[in-house]
Design goal:
Blueprint lengths: L1 H41 L11 H8 L1 H33 L5 H13 L2 H11 L7 H7 L15 H25 L4 H9 L4 H12 L1 H16 L3 H7 L12 H10 L7 H26 L3 H7 L4 H9 L4 H4 L1
Helix pairs in contact: 1-13, 2-13, 3-7, 3-10, 3-12, 4-7, 5-11, 8-15, 10-13, 12-13
């Protein structure tokens, strides 16, 4: 009997190892192997002959690659620093609505599940450079001249960021809304008794307790904007026009790998892919180390007693002196 129980126990442990093996094998086949193959391709020519770092030299000297890096970083920084504060503000507004929260959550998620091609067609129609377009008609009401929007080299990147913001902000709104549900209500009740107003509660309670959510949203947003492709391709195809202002790193890689209109070079495309991988890795590591802090501080914030909370609110004086 003991032998049978021992066999069952051993088989049970084997089941857990099998469950762990499934994602590990998937990661190995679909992530690790392609990564090594890309590294090999980046050091080979079209005849699969080893040429060292030649493709990397060609990539770094290519003006189009430099332009794609600038465009990617510019639109990425602009998008992240617009998306996060707006999404957090909307999540706070949603959290304070007494009824109908689920209805508003659906409204926020509708753009997210809409096809990027559909969104691009819609925004190209709204922001058409014609005088009769919706956007130009609206700005004409306040005396402004028609703008080129997607067709203007000075505005195309900002217009694309607006489109991406409208489509993707719902995801971060839901994340922030979920994070707000974890903030203990006792903190707000104690702050109210101690005379704190809504702005002070937001500054000294909500934002500190949402630190982990902010870090997650910030890092995932940085990774996403560095891999920007679908929206720029839907708006400008593989040209990246006007004037190459919508030409991103992924679009550069796509053009060098799969283009039917431009010269293809798999070695250069692989080298650009490795550079992008290193860029994402470095930026993610920097963001992680800059935002890393002892989690015990956050844990203590979530377990304040009323007396501890009053000390935080007073800060040696009172809220009014700090705000």
């Amino acid at each position: 009997m003991k032998k049978i129980i021992s066999l069952k126990k051993g088989f049970g442990d084997l089941e857990w190892y099998l469950l762990i093996a499934i994602p590990l094998i998937g990661t190995l086949i679909f992530n690790v192997v392609p990564l090594f193959q890309t590294i090999v391709n980046s050091m080979s020519n079209s005849q699969s002959q080893f040429i060292g770092f030649t493709n990397y030299g060609i990539t770094f000297k290519d003006y189009e690659f430099k332009q794609s890096v600038f465009n990617t970083l510019y639109m990425g920084i602009l998008g992240v620093f617009l998306n996060i504060p707006i999404a957090f503000t909307l999540a706070n507004m949603l959290n304070n609505i007494p009824k109908g929260k689920n209805v508003y959550k659906v409204f926020f998620l509708l753009p997210l599940i809409t096809s990027i091609v559909t969104v691009a067609i819609l925004f190209k129609f709204i922001f058409s450079p014609d005088k009769a377009s919706i956007a130009n008609y609206v700005i004409s009401l306040i005396g402004m001249q028609p703008l080129g929007w997607f067709n203007d080299v000075n505005m195309s990147r900002e217009t694309l960021v607006m489109m991406a913001l409208w489509k993707g902000i719902g995801y971060n709104v839901i994340l922030f809304f979920a994070g707000l549900q974890t903030v203990p209500t006792e903190l707000y009740e104690a702050a109210t008794i101690d005379g704190a107003n809504e702005r002070q509660k937001w500054r000294y309670i909500t934002i500190p307790c949402m630190r982990n959510t902010f870090i997650f949203v910030y890092i995932t947003s940085c990774i996403a904007v560095l891999k920007r492709f679908a929206d720029v391709y839907a708006v400008s195809s593989e040209y990246g026009n006007p004037g190459g202002t919508l030409f991103t790193i992924i679009l550069y890689i796509y053009r060098k790998s799969f283009s039917t209109l431009f010269y293809k070079d798999l070695g250069v495309a692989s080298a650009a892919s490795v550079v992008l991988f290193i860029l994402i890795l470095v930026i993610t590591a920097i963001n992680y180390f800059l935002t890393e802090r002892d989690d015990s501080v956050t844990h203590k914030r979530k377990n304040f007693s009323r007396q501890d909370n009053k000390k935080l609110l007073d800060g040696g004086g009172n809220y009014g002196k700090q705000a």
